[in-house]
Design goal:
alpha+beta
Length: 63
């Protein structure tokens, strides 16, 4: 998963939720746009994604 992929996911109306925050990585759950069901999850230590997520627990999709 790249930052571009995550931003396309958000742009499509879908969301994400941090399910685990480690010292140097996060585990992110990808959520459907029509109710928040988990579709996939990924672990990343990509600095660009970590900066994009920041301290948030989830995207602003309303789930």
């Amino acid at each position: 998963m790249t930052l571009d992929d995550l931003q396309r996911w958000e742009d499509s109306g879908a969301g994400w939720r941090v399910v685990h925050r480690g010292a140097e990585s996060v585990t992110v759950s990808l959520l459907r746009c029509d109710g928040g069901e988990e579709v996939d999850r990924f672990v990343t230590d990509d600095p660009a994604i970590l900066a994009h997520i920041g301290g948030r627990a989830s995207s602003d999709c309303g789930f």
